[in-house]
Design a protein that fits this description.
Elements (H helix, E strand, L loop, with lengths): L1 H22 L5 E6 L3 E2 L3 H9 L2 E14 L2 E5 L3 E2 L8 E8 L11 H15 L7 E5 L7 H15 L5 E6 L13 E5 L18 H4 L13 E6 L3 E5 L2 E5 L3 H14 L6 E5 L3 H6 L2 H8 L2
Parallel strand pairs: 1-3, 1-13, 2-5, 3-6, 6-7, 7-8, 8-9, 9-10, 10-13
Antiparallel strand pairs: 3-4, 11-12
Helix pairs in contact: 3-4
Length: 289
């Protein structure tokens, strides 16, 4: 009998260890951000989703910005055509950092309610996750993490989990209370120094933070830039794009320290112009596991 009990304990321990291992990895698969204020897909974008086996789309629903003393929704997306039936939608909300400078009672519940109402209004079903995007700092981190805890509590009634974005500088901080984070490998540089470095992505700006990757406790996916950034500086139009070689060099750099980042690859963001900026070989290399 004692030997039988011993084997049962060993079996249960193995099962628990297996479950823990599954919890510390992100779900494998390709994805893309959708960051426009009107939802529709042209034939190029539909073909892109099919070609690279993208079955998950992080769709920006709205922003949350300060309006006077209160945070308010802004730039809400308008769904003008049905969603693809084989694409999982992750409603994503960008919240400005100044919204986390003081506590706003009920904000988490209002945010979750608005997302759920938008899903119902637009016939969006099968939502199992939402994502919050915020460039939090040491000043706002404590309140932001409390806010995420409140969002988690609100989502429990909907059997929905929470993810959040992680910028490079945030790797130095304790991990936020979310199921996983998306490591944003873009907007890595200071736009004021654009003559020295590409502010969208430069591996020299990524390198100092690589040492934090191995010990960061939150499971991570990786997001890479495929967009163009146009600005007016002194009356002169400045355009930034990232060379394919730079994206792939950064991808190799971070995956050496964090092999898990090969599992879930996201591009920012889905748009015909962005798709046409790079050739098929580049996208195959980005999305390759």
């Amino acid at each position: 009998m004692r030997r039988y009990i011993f084997y049962i304990v060993i079996l249960l321990t193995c099962l628990l260890l297996t479950d823990c291992q599954q919890q510390v990895q992100t779900e494998q698969g390709n994805a893309a951000y959708y960051w426009r204020t009107e939802f529709w897909l042209d034939s190029t974008e539909q073909a892109f989703l099919c070609t690279y086996h993208i079955h998950k789309m992080y769709c920006r629903y709205f922003d949350v910005v300060m309006d006077g003393e209160e945070p308010m929704p802004n730039a809400t997306i308008n769904f003008t055509e049905p969603l693809p039936h084989d694409i999982e939608i992750i409603p994503t909300v960008y919240i400005t950092e100044d919204c986390m400078h003081q506590r706003h009672e009920g904000l988490a519940q209002k945010l979750v309610n608005r997302i759920m109402q938008m899903n119902e209004t637009n016939g969006i079903t099968g939502v199992h996750e939402i994502q919050i995007d915020c460039d939090y700092t040491d000043r706002s981190r404590k309140l932001y993490y409390q806010f995420l805890e409140e969002v988690n509590a609100c989502l429990s009634a909907h059997a929905t989990h929470l993810s959040t974005t992680i910028r490079l500088h945030q790797l130095q901080m304790p991990a936020p209370p979310a199921q996983y984070g998306v490591l944003m490998l873009y907007n890595t540089g200071d736009p004021r120094h654009f003559e020295e470095r590409n502010p969208i992505l430069d591996q020299r700006d990524v390198q100092p933070y690589v040492r934090y990757l191995a010990d960061y406790t939150l499971p991570l996916a990786a997001a890479y830039p495929v967009y163009r950034w146009q600005r007016q500086i002194g009356g002169v139009r400045i355009e930034h794009t990232v060379e394919a070689e730079e994206i792939l060099a950064v991808k190799e750099l971070v995956e050496q320290k964090r092999p898990e980042l090969r599992r879930s690859i996201i591009t920012y963001h889905l748009d015909e112009e962005n798709i046409n900026r790079y050739n098929k070989e580049t996208y195959e290399a980005i999305y390759h596991h």
